[in-house]
Design brief:
Mean pLDDT: 96
Order of helices and strands: EHEHHEHEH
Strand order of the largest sheet: 2-1-3-4
Structural class: alpha/beta
Number of strands: 4
Low-confidence stretches: none
């Protein structure tokens, strides 16, 4: 039987690394501290539209209202070394999942998962709130919080 590798690093991915993945990073950092886990956490986008920018202000406002810290987060594009470095690479939706699989070597495909695989919600993906209103950002946080709890349980079992 193959030995399970301990998960010590997680990378969250959305399209531009401006809304969903930085929110997931902020939420997950908060939750791993609560559980006294030592996991490296980062986020990136499959596209580099917003490289160097801070996360979307609407994501920050919604997240900070729930107690999450977005300090120091900057948008970046996923790179080849990320596939080597991270134990889990978590996509927010099917499009980004397919892009990650296309852009990585097959030996890394087992690391790439949809975030909602860890959620108790029936939703398959974390929808992009960028072109929506405040409720969309709140709903995205609901999904992320739930999936983050499931991911923590997965990491504890690894």
């Amino acid at each position: 039987m193959a030995e399970k590798k301990k998960i010590s690093s997680v990378l969250f991915i959305c399209l531009g690394n401006i809304c969903r993945s930085p929110s997931a990073e902020a939420v997950f950092r908060h939750k791993i501290r609560q559980h006294n886990l030592f996991v490296e956490v980062d986020s990136a986008g499959t596209q580099g539209f917003h490289t160097g920018c801070a996360p979307d202000e609407r994501s920050v406002q919604a997240g900070e209202a729930r107690g999450y810290d977005f300090g120091g987060l900057k948008c970046r594009k996923v790179n080849e070394m990320d596939f080597e470095q991270f134990d889990l690479i978590i996509a927010m939706d099917d499009s980004n999942l397919k892009n990650l699989q296309r852009d990585s070597r097959e030996e890394h495909h087992h690391k790439i998962k949809l975030f909602m695989e860890f959620s108790s919600f029936e939703d398959d993906v974390v929808p992009d709130p960028y072109y929506g209103g405040k409720k969309g950002f709140e709903y995205v946080l609901d999904l992320i919080e739930d999936a983050a709890d499931g991911l923590i349980e997965h990491i504890k079992r690894s």
